[in-house]
Predict the structure.
Amino acid sequence: MHKILVTGGLGYIGSHTVVELQQDGFDVVVLDNLNNSKLEVKENIEAITGKPVDVIIADVNDSKALNDLFSSHHFDGVIHFAAHKAVGESVEHPIKYYHNNITGLISLLGVMERHKVSNLIFSSSCTVYGATKDLPVTETTKIQKAESPYGTTKILCEDIITDFAKHKEFKSILLRYFNPVGAHPSAKIGELPLGVPNNLVPYITQTAKGIREQLTIFGSDYNTKDGTCVRDYIHVVDLAKAHVKALEYVNGMKQHVDVFNVGTGNGNTVLEVIDAFEKVNDVKLNYQIGSRRAGDIEQIWADTSKVSKVLNWNAQYTINDMMKHAWAWQKTLK
Ligand code: NAD
Ligand code: UFG
């Protein structure tokens, strides 16, 4: 494993993964259409690693551009991040999501097959487990019908990869992320949400910065220790490192497809996240309790024994680190 293509490598999780790959000695080529990222992320990655990043601005749906790229490089593996990810938007614009997330994957698999590139790491999500009662979730927890077109794209992509790999010399790892948060400790890269954030942590940091007036906690009447929802928040740098471990493992694995939960194994309530943010940063947050958000599940967190045992990966950062780094990053943004 030497040369890796990272689709969506200028995005939030992709950029952190490119840093870890470069720091681990991989030669990285990024393909991104800048749909949800900015070209300046390239310079920020380079500022961290001191190594140039080869960036191709193209759409993963553009088979000709992909073909040209695969003709001019020999890739040992691909990490496929490029996708749309806003759950609410996917309900309003399902075709946009099915097109980008599913057709994009099919386009990529076709070109990988043609050029005999046979290792793929795919970004999946714990959303595939839905509102399960089976907690913590293991990789064998039943997949449920998705609550949103976005969730459906993740389930379908997992199925497409599994079907594709069955009859080919093809190996793939599906990583089911829990809730990625935080930013690089250097504060040079982080999440760049467009418009009003949907996710908790960017909403917290934007409220602390004064960009948003007040955070609303979506419900305090859940059956959890303080009534607010529980999630398994994972530092984006830990998540990025899991991709490096997956790449090191994928080629030699016996089966065609394997799947891993990537979380910390700990659940935190919304109030615990806010408390950690306030304490570690010595900032008071303006928040109120509001009503439940439609579609939210009460609680989910990961059983991480498989990823720990097989990939030898464990999360290192704490919820305090996540809040510290998220705030340091927010302070750098105008
Ligand atoms: P992101 O939007 O920050 O990054 C995605 C990148 O892909 C962006 O740079 C975007 O410009 C690019 N892109 C999108 N469509 C493209 C296309 N057709 N061609 C080329 N580039 C394209 O998102 P992220 O948070 O880094 O998520 C990365 C992956 O992880 C996605 O597949 C997402 O569904 C998955 N995921 C994210 C989360 C999360 O909470 N962030 C959770 C679970 C899974
Ligand atoms: N929350 C608030 N106020 C806000 C935003 C969020 O109280 O302003 C709460 C939510 O109700 C939830 C928790 O904070 O209880 C986390 O919400 P996020 O929107 O940050 O994350 P979700 O768990 O809802 O969704 C995330 C990703 C999805 C992915 C899902 C499962 O955004 O893309 O995890 O992987 F599908």
Residues 85, 87, 125-127, 179, 198-200, 203, 215-218, 229, 231, 270, 293, 296 surround UFG (ligand 2) (CB under 6 Å). The mean pLDDT is 97.
